[in-house]
Amino acid sequence: MMKKDKDFPRGKDIEIILGTLLRVGVIASMSVVLIGGVVYLLFNYSGIIDYGTFDAHRTEFSSIAAIFLGLGRLDSEAIIQFGVLLLIFTPILRVVFSIFGFLTERDYLYVLIGLLVLIVILFSLSNRLTG
Amino acid sequence: MSVLLFTLIVLAGAFLAGLIGSLTGLGGGVIIIPLLTLVLGVDIHYAIGASIISVIATSSGSAAAYVREGITNVRIGMFLEIATTVSAVIGAVITVFIDPNYIAIIFGAILLFSSAMMIRKKVDRSDNDTSGRLAIFFKLNGSYPTGSGIKKYAVHNVAGGFFMMFIAGIVSGLLGIGSGALKVVAMDNIMRIPFKVSTTTSNFMMGVTAAASAVVYLHRGQIDPGIAMPVAVGVLLGATIGSKILMRVKADRLKVIFAAVVTFLALQMIYNGYMGRL
User: Which of A61, B213, B231, B266 could form a disulfide with B112 if both were Cys (CB 3.0 to 4.6 A apart)?
Assistant: First the structure.
């Protein structure tokens, strides 16, 4: 075991940080979704729903700004969507941490690759792709 | 249908999907999408949005364990994520322009392929002999801990694997699934990475790939809180329990049974898509 740790000193630390980050992200986001879900069911349990046709405007919480606005008035659907947002950001944050990890290893090629992945995701966040 | 009944049915179905998904290595999406569309009459675009959320939850949850063990090759993951994130966004952008019936047929075809991959005998073709210039330039060759010490491996055909990952990302963005079966083709057969490394690394990449398309779905209103909530909670619970009992059951026999179930679901999706019922 000692020898193994010696082989990748910094790499091992980063792996433990990444593992913890992923676990905390999933637990935190699922807790938020669960809280929102309970409140949502308490207020809407007897309502009738039909998801038979896709309507882009059915949920008003389809952007980060709208979710935060809804969160301000403690809307249950906004709380669920906030949990979903936390979940989406968990692997994104993982990429950010990996970039720092590669930076401490002075592996600039992979810092660049990580940034490239991050740029793709940030581009998809720009809201222009859905039309 | 009332909100309470709908939530309970989806919760139970998603739990089962997560359980089966983690026992067979298929992932929850392949079962949750047929359940929502065929059984509950949910529009496939909502089903896709809910499924991608469950993909992020399960892959991040299990990646957390694997990364700590040092089996995952973070460099291979990062490098191939360039291909999968770009293509996942492309897939998610074009998915609404495709007739839902065609999506169902494509989905069925991928499902058939996945179930064939599941029962096929795997041949480990990894070695540490030859390695291309690209694998050396991108520092992809690695090592992983086994029962008998650290084992080194070399990565082959990096360009071919990268291209296959691009296809896997498009499928993932188009259908809202992890497309693990395609990722395994890219890593096991083309790049010839050892199983243990390829499964954990593919799982590690899945979260980021899914996040890239999930953002597009969210902005389009495809992620509805009323469906996403029971799906995410159910699948994660099922997958967690599945991974706990995985060590105690004979997975091989289960896989044959589930391959039959998945084949049936696939034919249902293709039939309904072909008849224009979705």
Answer: B266
Residue A106 domain boundaries: 14-42+60-124
- The span from the CA of B67 to the CA of B204, in Å, is 8
**What residues of chain A lie within 8 A of the CB of B139, using their CB?**
107, 109-110
Q: Per the domain annotation, does A107 fall within a domain?
A: yes
Mean pLDDT by 10 residues, chain B (278 residues): 93 91 78 92 94 91 80 92 96 91 94 87 76 85 86 91 95 92 88 88 91 93 95 91 75 80 92 89
Judge whether residue A12 has pLDDT over 90: no
Counted domains in chain A: 1
ipTM for the predicted complex comes to 0.91
What residues does B143 pair with on adjacent strands? B152
Looking at the domain assignment, is residue A69 inside a domain? yes
Distance CA B199, CA B186 (A): 11
Q: Crossing angle for the helix pair A76-104 and B74-94, nearest 10 degrees?
A: 140
Are A50 and B1 in contact (CB < 8 Å)? yes
Residue B67 at interface with chain A, using a CB cutoff of 8 Å: yes
Decide if A114 is inside a domain: yes
> B235: how many CB neighbours lie within 10 A of its CB?
34
Q: Is A94 in CB contact (< 8 Å) with chain B?
A: yes
Interface contact B21, partner A, CB < 8 A: no
> Which range marks the domain in which residue B162 is found?
3-274
Q: What is the tally of structural domains in chain B?
A: 1
